[in-house]
Amino acid sequence: MAIATERIPVLVTATEKGRIAKMAKAAGLSMGEFLRRAAASFEPNDDDRILEGMIDQMNKTTVQANAAIDRALALVEESNQRIEKMERKAA
Fold first, then answer.
1. What is the structure's pLDDT at 1?
2. Nearest to 20 by CA among 3, 4, 38
3. Which end of the chain is less congested by CB atoms within 10 angstroms, N or C?
């Protein structure tokens, strides 16, 4: 087993630290070893990947929707200006 020589600072709340310490102690491991093993065994599941894809799609469509709204508002403004011009002419 390789000797650990690198640090990864991770900030946690006091409650989280207590919970991690309790789980590490129950597993008979140091907190560092417990966290290394937990990180090594973590793999995002299919639901996470699907959710990330949905979020990406939502971000893209939000940009498109905002652009469409901006275009519609510009058309409304142009129309309002034409109406004002016609009303001034009629008066």
1. 66
2. 38
3. N
Q: List pLDDT tens digits, range 59-70.
A: 999 999 999 999
| Total number of domains in the chain | 2
Containing structural domain, residue 62: 44-91
Q: Which token pair is 58?
A: 């939502």
Best CA proximity match to 32, nearest among 54, 5, 59: 5
Percent of the chain scored above 70 by pLDDT? 99
Q: What angle do CA 64, 65, 71 make, to 5 degrees?
A: 90
Residues sharing a CB contact under 8 Å with residue 29, sequence separation 6 or more, in sequence order: 37
Structure tokens that stand for 77 in this block: 């403004």
Same domain, 59 and 72: yes
From the list 56, 51, 19, 57, the residue with the least C-alpha distance to 38 is 19
Tell me the one-letter amino acid at 77: E
**Residue 16 corresponds to which tokens in the numbers above?**
């989280």
